[in-house]
């Protein structure tokens, strides 16, 4: 299971301040922490980047890569920022995060992903941006996104389908979580190839709540997702028990010869 760290977010005051001052030190520290925790990819959630999108995204990518020689995941809906981030990434190792059936987002980002041959996160949302109520709606969105992305030149193996993890605090949050499990299980069969899936695990416990209970719920749901064949997870790498659960699930998924040192 691929582990993507989501601790670098522009909504954090430390990240916003570093961007404003063009001070790479806080970003480097977060990237190094994520790498040490076991991340395979580091997500850079830069938001819309309405001011200096090229300079800001280039700054963030270079700061991360100076500290951690890992691929980056560029989380922005700004196509100018996305192009700049892909250009700044070493050896083009970057994930485009992401596209959906929303016309403006698809039209702006999908051609960029195709042009750079990047991995692309495909959110299973309806064209109006709403989350489908069940697995059937998510699978229908996946089929349409698959057709549109491959028509745009994105290879099937470069797509990471995200069924959109619901916050449990939603009125139907637990029911939606079960629909996500069903989507992950059925997606390869529906699309007819070993489709890859990614879930943003932190969304599950969005909002106020005890840290220990958030860790428990995320770890439990991650194990359930792994059992359905999840291939990648975006999570808070500062939550050590959740990362450990991901690594344990990866070991059990691998089918390799077991040894305690693997953990």
Question: What structural keywords apply?
Answer:
TIM Barrel; 49% helix; 16% strand; alpha/beta
Give your account of this protein's structure.
The protein has 263 residues and is α/β, with parallel strands linked by helices. It has one domain (2-262): Dihydropteroate synthase-like (TIM Barrel, Alpha-Beta Barrel), CATH 3.20.20.20. Helix content is 49%, strand content 16%. The protein contains 9 helices and 8 strands. The chain has an 8-stranded parallel β-barrel, surrounded by 7 helices. Strand 4 (94-99), helix 5 (103-116) and strand 5 form a beta-alpha-beta unit. Helix 2 (25-37) packs across helix 3. The longest helix is centred in the last third of the chain and has 19 residues, at 173-191.
The overall number of domains is 1
> What is the beta-strand fraction?
15-25%
Q: Give the N-to-C terminal Cα separation.
A: 14 Å
Helix content: 40-55%
Order of helices and strands: EHHEHEHEHEHEHEHEH
Strand order in space, largest sheet = 1-2-3-4-5-6-7-8
Low-confidence stretches: none
Which structural category fits the helices and strands?
alpha/beta
Mean pLDDT rating: 95
Q: CATH superfamily membership, which one?
A: Dihydropteroate synthase-like
Rg over alpha carbons? 18 Å
| CATH class type | Alpha Beta
Look up the CATH topology: TIM Barrel
């Amino acid at each position: 299971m691929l582990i993507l760290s989501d601790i670098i977010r522009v909504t954090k005051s430390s990240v916003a301040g570093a961007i404003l001052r063009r001070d790479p030190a806080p970003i480097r520290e977060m990237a190094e922490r994520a790498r040490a925790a076991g991340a395979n990819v580091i997500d850079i959630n830069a938001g819309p980047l309405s001011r200096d999108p090229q300079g800001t995204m280039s700054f963030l990518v270079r700061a991360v890569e100076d500290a951690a020689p890992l691929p980056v995941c560029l989380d922005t809906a700004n196509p100018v920022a996305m192009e700049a981030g892909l250009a700044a990434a070493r050896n083009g190792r970057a994930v485009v995060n992401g596209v959906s059936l929303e016309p403006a987002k698809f039209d702006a980002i999908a051609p960029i992903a195709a042009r750079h041959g990047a991995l692309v996160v495909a959110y299973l949302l309806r064209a109006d941006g709403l989350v489908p109520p069940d697995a059937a709606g998510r699978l229908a969105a996946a089929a349409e996104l698959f057709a549109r992305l491959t028509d745009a030149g994105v290879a099937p193996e470069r797509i990471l389908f995200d069924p959109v993890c619901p916050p449990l605090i939603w009125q139907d949050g637990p029911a939606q979580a079960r629909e996500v499990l069903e989507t992950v299980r059925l997606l390869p069969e529906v699309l007819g190839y070993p489709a890859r899936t990614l879930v943003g695990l932190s969304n599950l416990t969005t909002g106020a709540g005890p840290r220990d209970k958030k860790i428990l719920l995320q770890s439990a749901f991650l194990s359930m997702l792994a059992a359905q064949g999840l291939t990648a997870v975006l999570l808070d790498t500062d939550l050590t028990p959740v990362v450990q659960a991901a690594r344990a699930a990866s070991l059990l998924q691998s089918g390799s010869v077991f040894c305690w040192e693997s953990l």
